[in-house]
Structure formats: structure tokens, C-alpha cells
Amino acid sequence: MERSVIKFNEAGIEDVTEVGSKNAALGDLYTNGATSGLHIPDGFAVTVGVFKQFMDHNNLEGSLQQLMERLDRTDFSNLSETGNAARRLIMDAKFPRAQEQEVTNAYAALFPLKNGDVAVRSSVFAKGHQYFFPEGLHESHLNIRGPLALIYAIKCCYASLYSNRAIKFREMHGIPHGSVQLSIGIQCMVRAGTGCSGIGYTSHTVPRFPDAVRLTANWGLGQNTLPETWDEYIIPKTLQNAGYGILKTIGTKSRMTVYKDISAGTNSILTVITPPELREKAVLDDAGILELARMAILLEAHYSYPVVFEWANDGEENLFYITGIRPAVTGSCDSNNMNAAPLPERRDIA
User: Fold this and answer.
1) Helix (H) or strand (E) holding 309
2) Which class does domain 5-188 fall in?
3) What is the pTM of this model?
């Protein structure tokens, strides 16, 4: 029987066809990394099967295909019109009652006492193109609370398959529109709104350090801000002379993203001007930098080649969490080029 929900602690790389690449990697780390000091937020995956049932229940496949057939593939003059129509079809569609109940039950199990905040993240499955899609091509939503907002956010992720950018990307790379399917990751929020977040690259080369870890960091949630303004830290993998061999660039960090005090649906975060006292202050101290570098080395050893990972620091617990992971491009830390090898069979993290 096809599963609708798979908990992260029950998922692994072998489940990629059901939960997509991101969720499979998170499940792998959740299962194998917790005892080695890697913190992974609890959660579950809404499977690709639910996406298929949603499409079938609303007879969307044929309608979407007809829209894509009318797309102007020469200069994309009707791209906006076509994308709007496709997204409207998905957002107006009804979630199958049985699958909606299973999803909201799994959400309730995460928060037995009251509704809690979750991140709702797209996780792609596309046979033959599994790690090709650039980061951010499909939507994610943060600080989602309550079953109604959760189902709405999932539909928003589904609709993002037909954003103007996503449609054009598939056209430019010869990927059939109907071949791309989504699982959705439902992940307990890390309270980074009062902490910080960023991206880690497990393999980076600079003249001084030919084999290094690169970290970027900003205050708050990290979304909707300019990465080029973030702090950057380059750490040699030897980690010798702890704290003294780190190359630090303190960014301007002009904006940060925080939680909305009162949120509705997916309107749940807010980008604000960073307070002056935080702009000139380093986001990470040496202890935090070295802890993230240790995690990066552990991840690369686990997968046997370079990866890019998203991290967040809980401002209340002061713990570092891994919220996402994907293969890195060999010899580059460009997260927008995903033409990389697939994640290998998992090995126990030691």
C-alpha cells in the first residue's frame, strides 16, 4: 500500500522515489547522525504518492499539459499568462480528504499539546534529473502553524512547480513538465528568528587553505536577504590552532528575516532592516564556527564527497541544526548549479 506520510526517522536514501532527494537526505541524517552530535529537526515527509493522488483527484495532468502545449517556446511571450493559469488550477484544486487527514494527523503527532510551527519544504523527485534543479526553484515556507495553513502551504509548494522560472528552466533543459513530482518535508522550526542561519560548503579552496570549509551566516532565518551581504568564514580542515586560522569576512547584513508576531497562512515571516548593533557584529564566534566546521567534515566523510548544507542556530537553545543537504558541484561552491552526482548509499557516521 502506498504511503502518504513517512517520518524522518523512518526514511533513508533508498526512499528517494517516495520522498524526493532533500527528504531522503534528511531522513538519512536523522537516522544516522543523531548519536554523532548532528542535530536534525524532527518531522516527516508528505510523499510523492500524495502529490500524484492530488493531481489525479482533480484531473490536473491533462489540463496542465494542454496549458504547456500552448506555451510560446520561441520567446516565451505568454509565459506569465501560462504560469498564472497553471498555478491557479493547482491552488483552486481540493486536497483528497483521506490524504489530508493523514497529513494533519502526522502534524498533530508532532505537537500533542498545541499547534506548533513548521517549515514546509519542496523535495523534488524527477527520474534522471534528481539533483539538477537549482536551489530555490520550488517554494518553501517557514513558520507555518495549524492544519489549515499547513495544507495551504503544501498546495503553494505544488503550485511552485509552475512558477514562471520553473517552467522556463524545464523548457531550457529539455525536462518534460509532467516528469517532475514533489514530496513535501514538514520540519519542526528551528527558532532561528532569534538566532542565525546560513549555508555550509564542505569543500572550498583558497590560496592560503587548499582544503577548507566555507560557511556563510546571517542573523535570523536567512530567507529573502542578499547572500553577498552575509558573513563568510573559511576554515582549514585541519582545524589546527583553533580560532586562529579562520579567515573572516564580516558582511554588512543590511536585512534579516524574522517571524511575524501574528501570522496567517504562508504570510508568516517578515524581512526587516538589521539593527545597527548587529550589522557590525560577527554572526558566529569561534566556537560556533569550529562546531559547524566539525559538522561539515563529518558530513563529507559520511557521503564520501563534497556537499552543501543549510544550517540554523536556535536562539533559545543555542544548538546548531542541519535543515537541508544536497550534493555540491565538484570544484565549485555554486549552489545554483546542481548538475552533480546523486547521494550515494548511506554509510554509518562514525
Assistant:
1) strand 307-313
2) alpha beta
3) 0.88
